[in-house]
Amino acid sequence: MHLARILGGVLVFCLGGCSLGGATEAADLILHNARVYSLNWPEPSRDGQPDPSAPHGPAGWTPDATAVAIRGDRIIFVGSDAEALHLANGSTRTRDLAGATLLPGLIESHTHAVELGRNLRMADLVGVKTEDEAIARVRVHARKHPDAKWILGHGWDEGAWADRYPDMAKLSRAFPKRPVVLRGLHGFAVWGNAAAFAAAGINRDTEAPSGGDIIRDQHGNPSGVLTNRATELLSQAIPIAAKEEREAAILAGLDELARSGYVAVHEAGVDAQTLADLEGLSKQGRLPLHFYAMLSARDSELCRSWQLKGPDTGESGKLKVRAVKAFFDGALGSRGASLLTDYADQSGHRGVAGAQYQFDQDLVADMMRAGFQVCIHAIGDAGNRQTLDFIAAVQGNADGDYRHRIEHAQVLHPEDMPRFAALGVIASMEPPHAMEDKAWAEARLGPERVLGAYAWRSLRENGARLCFNSDLPGSDWNIFYGLHSAVTRQDKTGAPAGGWYPEQAMSIEESIRGYSSWGAYAGFAEDEAGVLAKGMRADITVMDIDPFDLAAGSPESILAGNILMTLVSGEFAFDRGDKASKAER
Ligand SMILES: [Zn+2]
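A: This is the predicted complex of the input protein with zinc ion.
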């Protein structure tokens, strides 16, 4: 069916006057000798079975094309090498992909890419075991940035170090003049030197804000670490980076994601400053990826200004603003997620949600009525139920293509599963979270409720639309880890054998759609992204493994995949340039 459509497209194209290789219709770039999965066939059934017309048979999946031809920012042909190469003329670039796998460009539909970029520009303390090791790494970083007025670092593990927090003595000796601020891996603690504490005006008379602690020595002086809400005392003192540095951080984050195979990100929460920076980069044509920005509902002034303008159609440039990100409840690990009944491991406690969690329902409702998609963080079964109730109350009976999203949709009561389809709400979920939370999720929820947690298959069976993402940088954004988690419900070590609640696993087609065509729908981009077909945007990801093939026999091998090429609107955002380019002429 899809093949006939593709061939039909070529026929019309040629009847329309292509003299083969002629100047007007020639391709700019032809990628050939590839295993192409266009996804340009009907959706799989709710149980994950491929559509009968999909390129799938008793022997498994087979690629449905070997070549893609591109002109400008569009795909002009998907099909065989011979036909594609007919579209070449003297100035066409051709790339022999040597049997690599070519997929629709991958979409990361819940990111904090700007935060990732900032982290990448700081001293990297991930994995440090001792205070001395951390200081040594900060020294190397500081030497590379002699002009930075403040020295920033990220990634020491405040959870693992909770019983032996460092103090400021050694750090202050190593850096007597420049302020140093080192954020913990999870953002719940900061460690600073004396210069930083002095610059922030934190001393023995400073009181910690409620919900936070200033760690003190035996004389009552701040000893160098602030936790939870008190971290703001130090982080607010850091001067706002200059525009060049802010732009460099954004581009560093996006470049890392291009290298990771993504052609588009859905950024979950953008404030006014960041949006202004993004608009500048977009106008100058410097954004390497499509950037779907969710306005942060915590920046109500920004939201109110967009409420008057209405959503951005995004027809020019790569930046699009037509969504709002809000939080309804907390997280499950810290028992902040809102549950219908008590936590299994803390009786009398049900988490925190709604107004107590600063969910501004008037603002969010106004933005919905102004035509914005809302993407609401909800984790617990009560949090999800009340979020669905809220969406139903505001727009449940209104006709319209709203595509509101619940971000994470992590724990659901069975009665709420069908409401996603009924309300047209998309469940935006992270396959890696299931793997990272499996160690303690059942302790929080107990054996019954855990059946409705990370319940991708149950949601699909109830007709819900999903999209997949990593919520980076909190989780590893490696696409092969994401696909492996979705298909196997096993972590990187292969545990547990057989998978964690494996009945909720996705097929490989569903997993890849979760990171491509379903993500495109969640960002109102399915008319030009998510599948490979003539007329679609030339957004392409090339990798050195065939996940469709591996998923059946050796899914653990998916973890060893590498991204070779990321093409965004016909331009290379990443090109590893070795295996992917056996021959170029
Ligand atoms: Zn997030």
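Residues 110, 112, 268, 471 surround zinc ion (CB under 6 Å). The first strand starts at residue 29 and ends at 32.
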